[in-house]
Amino acid sequence: MKLWAKGYDLDKDIESFTVGDDYILDRRLVRHDCAASLAHAKALRKAGLLTAKELANIAAGLKAIAALDAAGKFKIKREDEDCHTAIENWLTAKYGEAGKKVHTGRSRNDQVLTALRLYERETLGELKARLAAFSAACKKLAAKQGRIPMPGYTHTRRAMPTTAGTWIGCFAAAAADDARHAEFLLKLIDQSPLGSAAGFGVPVLNIDKGYSARLMGFSKAIENPIYAQFTRSKFEPAVMHLCSQVMLTLNKLATDLVLFSMPEFGFVTLPEKFCTGSSIMPQKKNPDVLELVRGKYHAVIGEELKALSLAGNLPSGYNRDAQLGKGPLFAALDAALASLGIMAKVTEGLKFNKEKCALAPELFATEEAYKLVKAGLPFRDAYRQLAEKFR
């Protein structure tokens, strides 16, 4: 039964259109909704709205649902619309009155928000862990081969000498800043929306939303119920912007490696097992993995733009448009997590070719100019002198 059911049947085409793929996407939110529902049930018990037996039944049911979900056996049907309805229907079928009471004092609006916050909190933690692993791979490569000199580039032309360690260290530094960005977001989303209901709070019932917030590990509950709904337009795009920043870090590395691994450069060699082949050209070993990481940056900023566009021009309060932001959020996080794992593995397998990285004389032009400056020549004169030499 639908949570909003009023005794009439919905047109099947309308149902299919409004549900969309939510019942599929929501599979990753089941255990998070179970955690939020348990916290809510405990708050209902504290308010005297559930008996001890009813709470025990709901807790046992939610534990069973989480176990079924972990085994891939908890089903969400299209007619359920989402995981929230499927969970309540399961509890009601199993425990009757207790299942019917679990939605007391909440709306599907704050229910969705809370499950998303718990999902985001967990996934941002995983993102931080993968950023750390990627950064460690960069530092490991620098420790092994970082002393090898190599050309530095500006405008895609040889510029000044650098080292393999300085080059790969750039990406470790970028990952560290991305991790700080993730930490900021974890602090930002550390606010429980549960208790805001449909965006106007819960009248009459004395439900302690601060209590349920603490049970879920949030530092506080969002005080303004209308703002709780607004956070979906702010927090989700913010999380996706982090994904864009992570993918920009990886895009830059992938772009460099596509160039540096070309035979014409030959600075680095990719392990053979990381390269795919051509269906027609027997000699080819293609850096497809790098090209896909490079391309996923553009896909992720597209998902971020979808979320930002959906958030604009909506009046205060919940609007169904927000449903369309769930898929882009999941897609952006999935891409960032997968790409970090892949690029950590690629980085660990890189081998620099010292001979190919040899420094041409013109790379030392700036250094020579500064030597003339130290000898007393004005920089502009030294600059022109060296420019003529390497003309």
Structure overview:
By secondary structure, the protein is mainly alpha-helical. The chain folds into 3 domains: 12-101, Fumarase/aspartase (N-terminal domain) (Fumarase C, Chain B, domain 1); 108-352, Fumarase C, Chain A, domain 2 (Up-down Bundle); 360-391, no CATH class. The protein has 14 helices and 4 strands. It has helices spanning 12-19, 22-25, 30-46, 52-70, 83-95, 97-101, 108-145, 164-188, 209-215, 225-260, 288-311, 326-348, 365-374, 379-389; strands spanning 149-154, 157-163, 268-269, 351-352. The strands form 2 sheets. The chain has a two-stranded antiparallel ribbon with strand order 1-2. Strands 3-4 form a two-stranded antiparallel ribbon. It is elongated, with a radius of gyration of 28 Å. The mean pLDDT is 93.
Relevant terms:
391 residues, single chain, Fumarase C, Chain A, domain 2, 3 domains, 61% helix, 4 strands, two-stranded antiparallel sheet, mainly alpha, Fumarase C, Chain B, domain 1, two-stranded antiparallel ribbon
Give a short summary of the structure.
The protein is mainly alpha-helical and 391 residues long.
- Overall structural domain count: 3
Distance between the termini: 80 Å
Q: In DSSP terms, counting alpha (H) and pi (I) runs of 4 or more, how many helices? A: 14
| Mean pLDDT, all residues | 93
Q: Major sheet: order of its strands?
A: 1-2
User: What do we call the CATH topology of the largest domain?
Assistant: Fumarase C, Chain A, domain 2
Anisotropy-based shape: elongated
Radius of gyration, taken over Cα atoms and rounded to an integer in Å: 28 Å
- The CATH class of the largest domain turns out to be Mainly Alpha
The CATH superfamily of the largest domain bears the name: Fumarase/aspartase (Central domain)
In the predicted model, the low-confidence regions spanning at least 5 consecutive residues are none
